[in-house]
Design brief:
Length: 288
């Protein structure tokens, strides 16, 4: 008898984990139902194409679910959620916590590009240095077009530098068994930046990258410029479903403390729509 992993077996494991991880409610039930209906009778061996098809089916309900097919994988499937591994400080230092650019334009605009959100304990010095270089600028462009997400604490840290010195609640994250609030940190008086700010977004802005843009937009602090983002608002966790399949699965949803909702499935919608080729110029013009 073959011990090959079949598609319906993989989806059964996936839906079992979704039932364990996600908060009870209509979205969880709909996600499990759509996956079960589509793949319950598929008894072929799992391939990379199958993982893509399962992802795309799931995205009709939950945009933040991913499967990585690893044909040579030998690791044991998880029986308990392992959580995220600790970040490697050397890797974070080598990439300057994904602060890829800080540049002063000819008109006095400060352009800051942050391409991911590393753990705040490691990222803070690089972010603080970037914002220190923004002092005295005429305006700030925060470019998140390549930001695939990361630590919500880093979202709060960056938001605090733009929203003010006093702590501000950004969101509440709802898990099956608890809720967690995220607030901006208290800052020394005069630390936060007061200049006009544009946040630049696009199809590469994802997850916590979208959260940063959404929370700032909801509070009227920034103008969002660019293209609508993919709309992945759930918090996720890694789960190995099989030796050959590693999943990132939703475990919580976000409620913005101003809007009472989030960007799941609809994305962060720009205040000013602009194609990538002219988005810097559009963002500067939006602040004049």
């Amino acid at each position: 008898m073959s011990d090959a992993l079949l598609v319906h077996d993989l989806v059964e494991r996936l839906t079992d984990w979704l039932a364990r991880l996600m908060p009870p409610g209509a979205r969880r039930d709909a996600l499990i139902a759509v996956l079960t209906e589509r793949f319950d009778a598929v008894d072929t061996t799992v391939t990379g194409a199958d993982c893509v098809a399962i992802e795309q089916c799931a995205w009709t309900v939950s945009r933040h679910l991913a499967l990585a097919f690893e044909p040579g994988g030998t690791a044991r499937p998880d029986t308990e959620s392992p959580g995220w591994p600790d970040p490697d400080p050397a890797v974070v230092r080598a990439r300057a916590a994904c602060v890829s650019q800080v540049r002063r334009l000819a008109d006095g605009t400060c352009l800051i590009s942050v391409d991911d959100l590393d753990a705040v304990s490691l990222a803070q010095p690089y972010l603080d240095a970037a914002f220190a270089l923004a002092h005295g600028s005429a305006r700030i462009l925060l470019d998140l077009r390549a930001n695939g997400g990361g630590d919500p604490a880093t979202v709060a840290h960056i938001a605090g530098r733009l929203l003010g010195d006093t702590p501000t609640q950004l969101s509440e994250v709802v898990y099956p068994d608890r809720r967690r609030q995220w607030w901006t940190p208290a800052l020394p008086s005069g630390t936060s930046l007061r200049q006009p700010v544009a946040v630049i977004v696009g199809q590469g802005t994802f997850s916590s990258g979208e959260a940063l843009a959404y929370h700032l937009q909801a509070r009227g602090r920034v103008v969002v410029v660019g293209e609508t983002t993919p709309g992945a608002a759930d918090h996720i966790t890694p789960i190995r479903l099989a030796p050959t399949v590693l999943a990132h699965l939703p475990e919580a949803y976000v409620i913005d403390s101003v809007t009472g909702t989030n960007w799941e499935g609809v994305g962060v919608v720009p205040d000013v729509v602009s194609p990538p080729g002219t988005v810097i110029e559009a963002a500067v013009a939006a602040l004049h």
